[in-house]
Each structure stands twice: as C-alpha cells, then as structure tokens.
Amino acid sequence: METRKQTHVAILTSPGMGHIIPSLELGKSLVSQHDLKVTLFIPTTSKSPQSSTLHNNQDGLNVINLPPVDITHLVAGETSLVVRITTIVRESLASLRSIIETSQQTPTVLIIDLFSTDALDIADEFKMSKYMFSTSNMSAYAFLAYLPKIKRVKNNNDLVSRLTELVHVPGCKPIRVGLLADPNTGSYGCMLRHVTRFKELSGVLLNTFEDLEQETYRALIDDEIAELIPTPSVYPVGPIIKPTVGPSKNQAIHCLSWLDNQPNGSVLFVSFGSGGSLSSEQVTELAFGLELSQQRFIWVVRNPIDFVLPSSYYLDAGNTKEIDPSDFFPDGFLARTQQVGLVLPNWAPQVEILSHASVGCFLSHCGWNSTLESILNGVPMIPWPLFADQHLNATLLSDDIKVAARTQIPPGKEVIRREEIKRMIRLVMEEGDEEGQNLRRRAKELKTSALRAISIGGSSYNSLCQLVEKWNTESD
Ligand code: UDX
User: Fold this and answer.
1) Per-residue pLDDT tens for 152-201?
2) CA 273 to centroid of ligand 1, rounded, Å
3) CB-based burial of residue 103 (10 Å sphere; 0-12 exposed, 13-18 middle, 19+ buried)?
4) Neighbour tally for 74: CB within 10 Å
5) Which of 274, 311, 374 to mutate to test the pocket of ligand 1 (most atoms within 8 A of CB)?
6) Phi, psi at 5, each rounded to 5°
7) What is the rounded average pLDDT for all residues in the chain?
8) Omega cis (within 30) before 239
C-alpha cells in the first residue's frame, strides 16, 4: 500500500519567550497528535537564550534557530518592542528563504505570528498557504483587526482625550484606546502595517478556546459585522501551553520541595512573565505589601526597571543573569520573610509552580501564556499588567471572564502602595472573603472547560483537526 507523504508545515515565530513557547507547543502537537512534519523557525540575536537550554529538536519537531542578526545599527536604543521584534524578524528572512529554497521537501503551509507578516512574501514565492498563530487571546486579536478604524490625531490636546476614549469593538468590552495602542507612536504604525496584511491569510489560529471568549468569537464569525472587523477565518485552538516536565534543575527541585511543605492553596505566586520588571520604588512597596498581607509567597524577582531597558529583558528572557535581590530589597525583608516566602531571581519553573496544590493565587502581569497556565491549573489571579496586551488581558480577566480580582492598577508609572497590595492579596487569599470564594470557584470551572476544549472531540481539538485536514488535502 502506498503511504501518504506527510504534509510539511513551517512555523515562523517571533523572538520572546511568550511567542516561542506556544509556537513550540503548537508544533509538537501537530507532530504528535496529527502526524505532520513541522519545522519551527526562530529568529535570534546574539543575546538570545541558548538553543540547547530552550528548544532542542523535540518530540519529532524540527527546530531551527535562524542565524543571529544584529539590529543595533537599525534601531535606536529606546525603539519600541514591536518595532525591534519586527526588525529582527525582517533581518532573518533572507536566511529563512534560503533554508526553504534548499529544503528537500518544501513546506506547503507557512504559519507566521503577529510580528512576522513580512514573511508572507516568502510564502507567496514558494506557493505556501498562509496562516497566522496569534499567541494572545481573541479580544486582543479583534482589537488589532479593528486598529485601522482608529484615526490618528493631529495635536497633543486631541491625543490626551483620544487616549482615554473608549473603543467599542463588536464582541468585546469597551477599552480605552491608550491601553491598546497609542495611535501616534511608532509601534502603532508598525502594528498597523502588520494588520493590513491579515487579509492575505487563509486563517488565524488563536491560543484561546471558544467557551472562554464566546461573544468575541461569535462577533468574529458573524458575516454581518465583517465590515467592522474584517478577518480571515479564526480557529481557537488553545489553551496550548508548556507541559509540566517536573523538577529538572536544582532551582526547580528546591522550589517544589519548598512548596511540598506548605498547606494546600496557601501560597501566592508572584511573577511578571518573561519581560516584566518593576521600578525600585515599586519593588519596595510590593515587598512591604507582601509582608503586611502575612501570606506565604513565591516571588520571581528581576533587577528593577531603572537598572535596565525593559525590551532588553524581554528579548533576552530565559538567559540567566546574575542578580542579588538584597541590592534592592528593603533592609531586612529577606530575613523577616524567610519562614513564609521564597524569592527566586529572574526565572522560575512557572508551570510546575502553578500546578502545585499549595499555590492558591497568581499575582501576574497577565501575559497570555501565564494566564492560560493559571486557568489550566484552576488558579485565580491578581492582575498587575505592565505593557503590550497585558492591560487589555487584565480587563478581560477581571470584568468579563471574572477569574481575576478587580484592581485599580494604573496604566502609567504610578506606584501601587503597600496597603493596596495587602488589600488585593488578602481579598483573594483569605478563606472568608466572598469575592475570593467566587474567584476560586470560577477558576475551577474554567479549568474544566479548558480541559474539555483540548480533549478529543472538544472545540479546540476539532478546530485543529479541521485545519490539519485542510492542509493535508491541499498538499496531496
Ligand atoms: C508577552 C505578552 O504580554 C503576551 O500576552 C503575549 O502573548 C506574548 O508576549 P510574556 O511577558 O512573555 O508575554 O508573558 P507570557 O505570555 O505570560 O509568557 C511567559 C512564558 O514564560 C510563560 O509560558 C511562562 O510560564 C514562562 N516563564 C516566565 C517561566 O517559565 N518562568 C518565568 O520565570 C517567567
């Protein structure tokens, strides 16, 4: 009997752990569950995390780190993250093209991500079907699709009112323009350039699931409002998250055995994702807030933001940097909290921590991967958004999905004081609080529906099957 040639799918991710991790997991699942041949391409710079520690060829997935590019002569130091990422991807395209050109079996499908639309030209050249994997949620995607409708403003007075203006995207809660994108910045222009190419795509895979964002999903597939948010077909295929691999490094072993000794649901996990860090003043307030709350905690700390450019953290995430928290913690904090707290410098085994029964709440920057990891483990959240889609995610989680406490984290540089931090933590962690009980119940419900979505026959599982069938038919 003649055997079918496997369909070859290429995934081009963007630099940054928040993009690489879900793309890697998507690739693994296409290989292991759907029997496709998949090559994941990762653009890199000389400072990118070493491939051996992060993404060796895994589970049959072919992972190629594109040769490092140097963009220092192309972008100024303060250039926005969106522009930097876009530039890195663009500078890597010549290498991508040459690998595809010489590959023994040219991929028939190219899956790009939000910041790599420049690669669509390569897909055209090699006659590949064009898809995108958006690593964030459906609301963030809907806002992006809506972006061309937001007009630029002419002067600064208009700008101030524009930033506080509410945008009503069909299927989404209203959101202030300023939280999403400042129409007068370079990153807005760059994002808009990506968005205008969405129409070339045959479909968009989203790392979310139908039940989580029902209204937005309905709006995105409603032909009658297609004029307002024009989009190719959308396929919610999530949650796609990193699996727990257990303690493989010393830090993980120490951290998980510390958790083993704490009561169930008693530990607050504090982390700001792969790129987040706070100002020195905010670190001090958070330290005192944790102390005042009298709750157990694990805190992943980074050098305060005043020491380093945030974008350099984000793009180098996963690299180990030497830091000494006693350089910037309040005097005596580590000694006073020794019995109840664990401070981890830079990076933690996050999925392992969130899946541990002792963890009761996640104080998070609301990066979408972190959010999905929390949801899949039934852990309620305290939102502390910092940049990018995180403010939008925080609003979605508190007001719509109701798995996160309602907090007043300002979008600007305002410092959140220790009393407010204590209040937020107690509200979720203390047994008696009704809002906390509701959040815990909701987190458990969402865990069940997330697991249902990715199980055989679930909505996300079916969406991915539908796509794979299409790709297989097209490549025959
Ligand atoms: C940013 C955006 O805010 C996010 O919404 C977007 O989808 C991707 O880029 P980022 O800061 O990378 O996100 O956070 P997040 O999306 O949460 O991803 C971080 C990933 O790194 C998670 O998978 C998390 O488990 C992992 N991580 C982070 C660790 O394993 N350990 C850490 O200490 C920090």
Assistant:
1) 655 555 555 556 678 888 999 887 777 666 666 778 889 999 999 999 99
2) 4
3) middle
4) 14
5) 274
6) -75, 135
7) 88
8) yes
Match 């069909």 to its residue by tokens. 170
Question: How far apart, in whole angstroms, are the C-alpha atoms of residue 81 and residue 366?
Answer: 17
Query: pLDDT > 70: what percent of the chain?
Result: 87
- Which atom of ligand 1 is closest in space to residue 242's alpha carbon? 23
Amino acid at 174: P
What distance in Å separates the CA atoms of residue 206 and residue 234, rounded to the nearest whole number?
7
What DSSP line would sit under 358-369, residue for residue? TEEEEEE---HH
For atom 15 of ligand 1, the residue with the nearest CA is 367
How are beta strands 203-206 and 296-301 bridged, if at all?
A: unpaired
10 Å Cβ neighbour count for 248? 10
Q: Which of 154-168, 386-400, 425-439 has the lowest mean pLDDT?
A: 154-168
For the sheet with 109-112, list strands across it.
62-65, 37-42, 8-12, 109-112, 129-134, 203-206, 233-236
From the candidates 8, 34, 55, 113, give the one annotated as an active-site residue.
113
Question: What is the per-residue pLDDT across 24-44, written as a single tens digit (0 to 9) for each?
Answer: 999 999 999 999 999 999 999
Coil, strand or helix: which one is 109? strand
Given strand 359-364, what is the order of strands in its sheet? 341-345, 296-301, 267-271, 359-364, 381-383
Q: Is 19 a catalytic residue?
A: yes
Residues 6+ apart with CB under 8 A from 95: 66, 67
Ligand 1 pocket member 389 (CB < 6 A): yes
Smallest Cα–Cα separation from 113: which of 26, 229, 221, 226?
26
Q: Is 433 a catalytic residue?
A: no
User: Angle of helix 280-293 relative to helix 418-429, nearest 10 degrees?
Assistant: 40
Q: Give me the count of residues in the chain.
A: 476
Which is it for the CA torsion 385, 437, 270, 445, positive or negative?
Answer: negative
DSSP letters for 343-362: EEES---HHHHHTSTTEEEE
User: What amino acid occupies position 362?
Assistant: F
What residues contact residue 203 under an 8 Å CB cut-off, 6+ apart? 131, 132, 232, 233, 234, 235, 467
Helix (H) or strand (E) holding 390: helix 390-395
**Which residue would you say has higher pLDDT here, 226 or 290?**
290
DSSP conformation class of 404? B
pTM for this entry: 0.93
- If you search the block for the tokens 């199980």, which residue do you land on? 455
Cβ neighbours of residue 254 under 8 Å, at least 6 residues apart? none
User: What DSSP assignment string belongs to 133-151?
Assistant: EESS-HHHHHHHHHGGGSP
